[in-house]
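Researcher: I'd like a structural prediction for the single chain below. Treat it as a standalone chain; there are no partners to consider.
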Amino acid sequence: MRDVISTPDAPKAIGPYSQGIRANGFIFVSGQVAIDPATQQVITGDIAAQTARVIQNISEILEAAGSGLGKVVRTTVFLKNMGDFIAMNEVYGKYFSASPPARSTVEVSRLPKDVLVEIDVIALAV
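Model: Treating it as a single chain, here is the predicted structure.
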């Protein structure tokens, strides 16, 4: 079974992909960037502001799927600059403080819309 997850409370996909997919007891959330769903524009701000917006977007998609941040089991964080790791990690830790999920963090040369951070997650569906 495979269900598409979609909500107007998160940014529209900027390509041929779904915001999320529910399959086999998991929710797979596509990489989210710091786009405000109300304007569909990248927010202004530093890595902390962008990280918070990204996690808010992820949270909205998970909630639309009947899940939530507390059910995230795996994240991948893509940073434009590894020098932003400490500031990103500080914000990330506010959302994933108790029993944080497994995570990889990598620096990449460029991200969609030239944002500073992109995060994707896998969460339990129930």
